[in-house]
Amino acid sequence: MKGNTDPNNIEDVKTIVEEQSSTNTTSIQKISLEQIPTEGLILDIGGGGEGLVSRIMGAKVCALDIRLSEIREAQIHGPPANWFVGDGQSLCFQTSTFDVITLWFSLGYMSDWAIKERVLKEAHRVLQKDGKVSILASNIPESCERLIFWGHFTLPDGTVSQTGYGVKGGQNQTLEQLVNLLEKTGFKIQSQEDNDAWFAIQAIKI
Ligand SMILES: C[S@@+](CC[C@H](N)C(=O)[O-])C[C@H]1O[C@@H](n2cnc3c(N)ncnc32)[C@H](O)[C@@H]1O
């Protein structure tokens, strides 16, 4: 995700931007994260990296990531989550297992829309009836080759996590496009919030 660059080092950031002239870089987006209201199990797809959901919801979380290195990075924070290396397109869980599925800044790493669709179909399969999907995602314009989204996250316990998520551009990943895909894959939208650089969607399995 971040290679050898340090997202907290401004010189590293400048180097990335200068080397890649068609890179779009967002300003730092301040995002307050809340507890996820559920008594049941949560599946966090693309749950490595900062491991935000695991750090907030702990042992209720099954955190799945396609890259072991990203899981190792999230484990540094020591949350008592359950860790899985796997592909969200083909989940190793039984049908109707989870109450909530989270995709927090991970759909942008699945740059092909066919992959996003397969992941949402699998999410739908492993969710219980009336289960919810929670999406946080950056707006990724058609026009750039690469996007670096800067997030300054405040967790419910006051911990701050600041990071840069670097993704392939040209995806046209917008709130509207993801709402369409969620409806196509069997979800009903409960709420949506567009914040320009990023958006949030909550949807329910129907
Ligand atoms: C921005 S990173 C981590 C975001 C994470 N939710 C957090 O809290 O920081 C997105 C992750 O999605 C993972 N990913 C990409 N494609 C995936 C797939 N098909 N299945 C599972 N994980 C995937 C990447 O390996 C990467 O670790």
Question: Can you list the ligands bound to this structure?
Answer: S-adenosylmethionine
What is the general shape?
globular
> Which structural category do the helix and sheet elements fall into?
alpha/beta
CATH topology: Rossmann fold
CATH H-level homologous superfamily name: Vaccinia Virus protein VP39
Unreliable parts: none
CATH class: Alpha Beta
Distance between the termini: 34 Å
Oligomer classification: single chain
SSE pattern: HEEEHEHEEHEEEHEE
Strand content: 35-45%
- Known CATH architecture: 3-Layer(aba) Sandwich
Q: Largest sheet, described in full?
A: 7 strands, mixed
**How many β-strand stretches?**
11
Q: What Rg, in angstroms, do the CA atoms define?
A: 16 Å
Determine the fraction of residues in helical runs and give it as a percent range. 10-25%
Number of domains: 1
Integer average pLDDT: 94
What is the count of DSSP helices, taking H or I runs of 4+ residues?
Answer: 5
Query: What is the spatial order of strands in the main beta sheet?
Result: 5-4-3-6-7-11-10
Quick structural overview:
With 206 residues, the chain is of the alpha/beta class. The protein contains 5 helices and 11 strands.
What key attributes describe this structure?
globular, Rossmann fold, 5 helices, 206 residues, 4-stranded mixed β-sheet, alpha/beta, binds S-adenosylmethionine, 7-stranded mixed β-sheet
Provide a descriptive summary of the structure in words.
The protein has 5 helices and 11 strands. The protein is of the alpha/beta class and 206 residues long. The N and C termini lie far apart (34 Å). The chain has helices at 10-19, 52-57, 68-75, 113-126, 175-184, and strands at 23-25, 29-32, 42-45, 61-65, 82-85, 98-104, 127-138, 146-154, 160-168, 187-194, 198-205. It has one domain: Vaccinia Virus protein VP39 (Rossmann fold). S-adenosylmethionine binds at residues 1, 45-52, 64-67, 70, 87-89, 104-106, 109-110, 165.
